[in-house]
Amino acid sequence: MNIPSLITLSAFLALSSVQTAPAAGVTFIDVPQDNKGPTLESAIWYPCAGNPTQVDIGFDHSTAVKDCPLLGEKLPLIVISHGVGGWYGNFHTLAEQMADAGFVVAAINHPRDGGRSKTRDPGDIASMTQRPQDMTRLIDFILTSWSDGSQIDATRIGFFGFSRGGFTGLGMIGGNPDWKKLLDNCPVYPGNRFCAQIRAGDIPPLTADPRIIAAVIADPAGGNLFTPESLGRVTVPVQIWGSEYGGDGLSPADAASVARYLASKPEYRLVPKSGHFSFLPPCSAEFAKLAADSGDTELCTDAAGFDRVAFHKQFNADVLAFFRKYLTDTKQP
Q1: Listing from the earlier edge strand, what are the strands of the sheet with 40-49?
Q2: Rounded to an integer, what distance in angstroms lies between the CA atom of residue 100 and that of residue 96?
């Protein structure tokens, strides 16, 4: 073989290596409307091979390979629940990293309080109570109707939630709030009807899903509504993150009280100098402009001395380590 042929062969092998490098795949599905709720828009990240690009995910872009074949069998599943006004792409950097590590990660737009929803009504208490059911419908669809659902291990499902998403997760693992505790501090933002609905009674309990075997709860909204009794049914491993300064109506005590009241001692991390929105990933230039244009600059702003980029590098690693510990047979991908 002559030198040019060797060079050509080497180039071909190098190119093939690049094309099959591990990457996060991403695809988009709709969970169809049924008698339990409306259509749920969803994004799913998963292990694949290919060259990642910038994929449009709504308010931002994800570094992933769109619609590539899913690699692996019996993969663990993580479902993600966003906060009020959020969307399925809020934690795309975490989802990408977990997909690279061998997890399937699915997130939805909650129809009653998502930022992309045309039917949003965050002032209705149903925007809180319906959330666990949204997530259960997502899990049901992925396991039974998604084209790649047979490659997921239904016995290894975890949950990640931020803000109202954290509240959602507490419900899914067996917690139920004492809504009457809210009557001493009723929300006052325009359109909120929580207290009137609580006084009228008939607030349905949150729907637990026993398929969730580990949960990460980040700065949960409504954490002060839970009691030792209302968290008494929670038995799964839980990792709780709390901000030092709170914000957006949340007190730093919300996460702390949940951690204190859980019967099985959770992993509890209080993040120094952090505010509530510090748990959102570092804002891209695109998302920062969108936040500024809508008057929501606090989404991308932190207290002096807080490094969101450095924090999320450690945060994502710690969340991944937690799920590896409880959802996989080894701590390595």
Answers
A1: 53-56, 61-66, 22-31, 40-49, 104-108, 75-81, 152-162, 212-218, 238-243, 267-271
A2: 6
Q: What is the DSSP letter of 58?
A: S
Domains of the chain: 20-327 (3.40.50.1820)
Count of other CB atoms within 10 angstroms of residue 9: 11
Quote the tokens at residue 235.
């038995």
Give the pLDDT of the chain (333 residues) as one tens digit per residue. 443 333 333 333 333 333 445 789 999 999 999 999 999 999 999 999 999 999 999 999 999 999 999 999 999 999 999 999 999 999 999 999 999 999 999 999 999 888 877 777 888 999 999 999 999 999 999 999 999 999 999 999 999 999 999 999 999 999 999 999 999 889 888 889 999 999 998 899 999 999 999 999 999 999 999 999 999 999 999 999 999 999 988 999 999 999 999 998 999 999 999 999 999 999 999 899 989 998 999 999 999 999 999 999 999 999 999 999 999 964 444
Residue that is written with structure tokens 């399937």 in the block: 104
State both tokens at 129: 């109570």
pTM over 0.85? The answer is: yes
Position 65, amino acid = V
The SS3 assignment for 41 reads strand
Residue whose tokens read 């997890």: 103
Asked whether 51 and 65 are in contact (CB, 8 A), the reply is: yes
Q: Which residues of 26-48 are buried (b: 16+ CB within 10 A; e: fewer)?
A: bbebebeeeeebbebbbbbbbbb
Q: Which of 103, 63, 41, 18 is nearest to 322 (CA)?
A: 103
String of b and e for 179-193 (b: at least 16 CB within 10 Å)? Answer: beebeeeeeeeeebe
How many other CB atoms sit within 10 Å of the CB of residue 150?
11
- Amino acid making up residue 249: G
| Rounded alpha-carbon distances, angstroms, from residue 12 to 2, 3, 6, 108, 323 | 16, 14, 10, 40, 38
Torsion, Cα 10 16 19 21, to 10 degrees, reads -90
